[in-house]
Specification:
By secondary structure, the protein is of the alpha/beta class. Helix content is 41%, strand content 25%. The protein has helices spanning 16-22, 24-31, 40-53, 111-127, 151-170, 188-191, 193-209, and strands at 12-13, 57-60, 63-73, 78-90, 93-102, 133-138, 143-148. Strands 1, 2, 3, 4, 5, 6 and 7 form a 7-stranded mixed β-sheet that branches. Helix 1 (16-22) runs antiparallel to helix 2 (24-31) and helix 1 runs antiparallel to helix 4.
Length: 212
């Protein structure tokens, strides 16, 4: 299979994958318009990540743990950092096992799994290894969720990376689409999905009755 290879200057933040799967408009506001606002949820998440990043490495029996590991994939066109990469010793080989920390609880969609899978693909490319699985640690339940990097998840991850590049390269921020998830978004005041959405519906209605 032939893959597209991106140049260094074309690399995008790996976190954009999760932003896109949560909301295309949020992704554009952050990565095109460079907008950001913190709320309780993002603050708690940042504190959790900061605690992880203050460590460097540790070794316990057959597991060596590295924190804040730089990541890059020219195939996906992504750059970023892994919260934690555990290296599990199997004979004379140390196998990487990425672990991503999340403040909340497991989600119904694949946005967290796609982000973790992208980290694994970066590590595979950087280290010339195959990574079968990783884990998501959720702060609300204080428990890990194992993630298998199967074919379906890898395809979704690759497709999402392409969609992120297409969106950001377009330079166009999608119109808002108000839903329940907007309530937990830190950008809700900047985005104004309820107000902008109502204005858009009103303009469409007026255009319809005027025959435009």
């Amino acid at each position: 299979m032939t893959y597209k290879t991106y140049k260094e200057e074309d690399l995008l933040q790996l976190s954009a994958l999760q932003h896109l799967l949560f909301c295309r408009r949020q992704c554009a506001l952050i990565h095109i318009e460079q907008a950001w606002s913190e709320n309780l949820f993002t603050a708690e998440g940042r504190i959790m990540h900061d605690r992880v990043d203050t460590a460097t490495h540790e070794t316990r029996r057959n597991i060596r743990t590295e924190f804040g590991v730089p990541l890059r994939s020219l195939r996906l066109g992504l750059i970023g950092k892994a919260d934690v990469v555990e290296f599990h010793r199997q004979g004379d080989v140390w196998r990487p096992f990425p672990v991503e920390y999340k403040r909340g609880k497991p989600k119904h969609d694949n946005c967290d799994r796609v982000q973790l899978c992208a980290q694994a693909i970066c590590l595979e490319e950087m280290m010339s290894v195959e990574i079968e699985r990783g884990a998501l640690f959720y702060g609300s339940i204080r428990r890990r969720e194992d993630v298998v990097f199967d074919r379906a998840l890898r395809v979704e991850t690759e497709t999402t990376a392409e969609r992120v590049h297409d969106l950001i390269n377009s330079g166009i921020t999608p119109e808002p689409d108000y839903s329940r998830k907007c309530r937990s978004c830190s950008l809700v005041r900047l985005c104004m999905p309820d107000i902008c959405g109502k204005k858009r519906k009103a303009s469409r209605y007026l255009a319809g009755i005027s025959g435009e």
